[in-house]
């Protein structure tokens, strides 16, 4: 990355980027500050980022990119954005775009994005959570994902279940979990419950039952989960835990706990993404990776799944000129590499050199089926996972509506809902209606406070 005279003039200030990054370089070069630069502790990632910046600047004379290691912090983000101190490109989790769009804190990018020759080949599913009601698109996603049902194919076989036909409904999950528990002694199904992940997973379970977590009302968002869909979801968990005894004895788990136990063959099913295969293999040493299977998220009338990932947006305060430069960066850094089959093959080849890697794990396609087929063909020689074990997820997920996380104060909402999930899983006499009523009041208080 280059250092212009304008930036060097502020080098003595610890806030150099914030104070000077918004001005142009002395030679008329447009300087944009972009979040998404890896920290110094990730040396390979940082070197790759620096190379990407150099390649971009070479191809786009007149634009200079200054990387930022700033990461999303819900406690400081709004104030920074409101004060005009945010970078020209901001990186946020998918919990945030709808709220930012509603508050008019980010700007529509459809016009600039539409200049890219392949814009119309984007998978509409991945753009929908970044769009407003009129269809204006506000950002570019990175590594979008959709939740599914991860299951242990070996335990399915031992329980007399068909490992090629994962449960499609929650009634089928309940029956499968009971069979696994009774015939193998393992936990048939595990639901996360701590570190905000209980609320996160209750959200996806509620979506599959046709429910909402939040809705607009009173000049902002209010709780919407104190209704039949969430009640049915929690009742299902309560019955599986206490009537069926199919969820094991350890009920206080986050995602790392669950994947670690799954990798050890102790869990039959959990809600997760194909990407959790990497954690199971590379982080937790899953020996029998052929036992990993995944299907679409089971349904109970909602025909929906939760999507997520990181999103890059441009604050509304950014000038038209800088916004145009920011879109060029976003397309170069995040859209084109996902579109380019040759680049995908090269990345796959590099990864495949490490026998501990996981190459070819499916993701939610960034682009349409035709382009995805080209990418799949390009990386095929380097794939080291059994793609047929991901087939149910690949075939079933496109039929589901992708639902983003709650738009307002999602992590605080999840923290409240954690207590509801924990109560249902640890107290046989837990009153679902009373728990949801109290959670509704608590969440509405938090949402109201955030609007002040």
UniProtKB/TrEMBL annotation:
What residue stretch is flagged as signal peptide? 1-18
On the tree of life, the source organism's domain of life is Bacteria
Q: Does the keyword Signal apply?
A: yes
Signal is among the record's keywords: yes
Extract the InterPro entries matched here: Bact_solute-bd_prot1 (IPR050490), SBP (IPR006059)
Keywords of the record, alphabetical order, are: Signal
Protein name according to UniProt: ABC transporter substrate-binding protein
């Amino acid at each position: 990355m280059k250092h212009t005279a304008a930036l060097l003039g502020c080098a003595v200030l610890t806030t150099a980027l914030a104070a000077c990054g918004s001005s142009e370089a002395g030679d008329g070069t447009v300087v944009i500050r972009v979040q998404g630069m890896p920290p110094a502790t990730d040396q390979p990632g940082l070197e790759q980022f620096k190379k990407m910046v150099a390649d971009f600047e070479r191809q786009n004379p007149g634009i200079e990119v200054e990387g930022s290691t700033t990461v999303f912090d819900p406690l400081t983000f709004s104030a920074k954005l409101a004060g005009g101190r945010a970078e020209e490109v901001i990186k946020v989790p998918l919990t945030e775009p709808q709220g930012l769009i509603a508050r008019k804190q980010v700007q529509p990018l459809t016009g600039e994005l539409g200049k890219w020759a392949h814009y119309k080949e984007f998978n509409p599913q991945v753009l929908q959570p970044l769009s407003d009601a009129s269809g204006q698109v506000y950002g570019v996603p990175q590594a979008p994902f959709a939740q599914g049902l991860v299951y242990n194919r070996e335990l399915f076989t031992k329980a007399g279940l068909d490992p090629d036909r994962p449960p499609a409904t929650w009634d089928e999950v309940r029956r499968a979990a009971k069979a696994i528990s009774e015939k193998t002694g393992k936990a048939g199904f595990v639901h996360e419950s701590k570190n905000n992940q209980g609320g996160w997973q209750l959200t996806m379970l509620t979506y599959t039952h046709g429910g909402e977590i939040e809705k607009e009302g009173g000049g902002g968002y209010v709780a919407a989960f104190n209704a039949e869909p969430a009640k049915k979801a929690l009742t299902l968990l309560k019955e599986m835990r206490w009537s069926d005894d199919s969820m094991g004895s350890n009920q206080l788990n986050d995602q790392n706990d669950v994947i670690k136990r799954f990798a050890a063959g102790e869990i039959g099913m959990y809600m997760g993404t194909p990407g959790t295969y990497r954690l199971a293999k590379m982080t937790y040493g899953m020996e029998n990776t052929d036992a990993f299977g995944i299907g679409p998220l089971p349904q109970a009338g909602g025909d929906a799944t939760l999507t997520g990932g990181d999103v890059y947006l441009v604050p509304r305060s950014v000038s038209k000129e800088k916004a145009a430069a920011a879109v060029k960066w976003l397309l170069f850094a995040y859209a084109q590499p996902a579109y380019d089959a040759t680049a995908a093959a090269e990345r796959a080849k590099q990864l495949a050199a490490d026998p501990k890697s996981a190459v070819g794990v499916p993701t939610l396609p960034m682009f349409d089926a035709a382009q995805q087929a080209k990418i799949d063909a390009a990386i095929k020689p380097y794939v080291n996972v059994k793609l047929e074990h991901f087939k149910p997820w690949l075939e079933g997920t496109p039929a589901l509506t992708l639902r983003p996380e709650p738009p307002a104060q999602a992590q605080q909402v999840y923290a409240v809902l954690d207590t509801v999930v924990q109560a249902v899983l640890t107290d046989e006499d837990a009153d679902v209606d009373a728990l949801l009523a109290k959670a509704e009041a608590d969440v509405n208080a938090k949402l109201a406070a955030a609007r002040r």
